[in-house]
Amino acid sequence: MQISNSYLQLGDDFYLPSTPRQPSNPQLFLWNQGLAESLGVADFLAQEQEDPAGFFSGGRLLPNSKPVALAYAGHQFGHFNPRLGDGRAHLLGELRGDTDMVFDVQLKGSGATPFSRGGDGLCGLGPAVREFIMSEAMAALGVPTSRTLAVVTTGDEVYRGDAVPGAVVCRVAASHLRVGTFEYFYAQGNKDAIERLCDYAISRHFPELASSEGPEKYSGFLRAVFSRQVELVCEWLRVGFVHGVMNTDNTTISGETIDYGPCAMISTYNPNTVFSSIDAMGRYRFGHQPSIAHWNMARLTECFLPLLDQDSKQATAIGESLLGEFPQNFEQRYHHMLASKTGVRLQGDSDKALCEDFLQLLRKQGLDYTNSFDSLTRSLIDPQHEDRCASQWPEWYQAWSARIEQQGRPREVVAEGMRRHNPVVIPRNHHMEAVIDECIKNGSPDAAKSWLKVLRRPYQDLPTTPNYQDPPADGDRSYQTFCGT
Ligand SMILES: Nc1ncnc2c1ncn2[C@@H]1O[C@H](COP(=O)(O)OP(=O)(O)OP(=O)(O)O)[C@@H](O)[C@H]1O
Ligand SMILES: [Mg+2]
Fold it and tell me: What EC number(s) does this enzyme carry?
């Protein structure tokens, strides 16, 4: 295990040195052994006979770590803030994983930094447990995401209305480059920094662009970032994830999900679903996420206008044309995803319509998204589910069965294919709240660990899976999530 600090070479405009806060009594709460092994952290700890709690709470520094808080700006709910930055996070450095990819290792909740703007720099145990469970569930679902290596309780209290136990999350991500990182320099008119940042992003995420130059490099870069966002949002829609705070400072260049603050899962299918208490206008509602990703990509494109062409009119035309590809690319990828969930091969518009009709039925009947697709998948190989689906959706199910038959693949094969896109279990909101409450009340991670066993196999029926499949009694109508906790 060798920590590197490549980000620091970008120059001191990009970050501010900041030392994590000393916790009074760091205790390991949750630990991701698989991730620790893949990063060489497990071997390091075994060799040194060290406990992870000190290193992953900020109490002690890993060898060669030079902690910094990263500078970034961001559009929050549409309004630009030129200076946000890591107000409660410390980048410890980078580690090379067993697949040779390089990952950032960052602490969150590790104390105030020069970017804290009056905030306390801390994190409560509840949100830390949420970040661990959600990110690990998303990774197991196959959704691009930052990971969580550890949650360490600090032994200190954090004030969030009441006193709550404090914790530090250790996050591992392909990088922490955000759209807001580019916006930070664009707002300062620092074209040179944007060029350097772009080269750095290419070296970490898009090495295939390394040999391109000039405007071609920049349009290639934008296309590559757009494509990752298209993929990411399609994956969110596939599993029913609502990010909740898709500000440009929470939008990564790598295309990974980051910041599990006010996120939630839909139960009843409704594109207008919004859970975040501060999202009064529903800007970040479930079905609006593709448009917001597009809007965020427009903010990124703006930062590149001076680099796309010297003539500003020409540059705007190039930017608009690149952005114009986004909705079409999204539609195409989305229909493909929906068809995979529905088991249909897309051979024409009538296949698209068949898949969309199913969503309309779920909406009209107020049905659970995950369980309905699960039942549809099972109906191909289980007569009980077949009867249930046939009576729930008489006309549609007949049309669908006929189409599946017509497309000529054996039912078992179609069911297997659908299963890869339809989880049997997701991190449902009511279970999340119950598990977090239990962890805090008992001062024990056991409830989280039992749930994680199931969430790490979201496409399989384990003996304890049924404990977590029930939709919320009220369809989550009164469920609310909160930011900045
Ligand atoms: N308790 C806090 N103290 C200081 N700064 C904070 C605190 N909570 C949030 N911030 C800062 O406010 C901004 C927006 O917060 P947001 O909730 O999006 O991020 P976050 O959850 O802290 O971190 P990340 O995006 O890295 O997951 C960020 O600059 C963040 O560092
Ligand atoms: Mg954030």
Answer: 2.7.7.-, 2.7.7.108
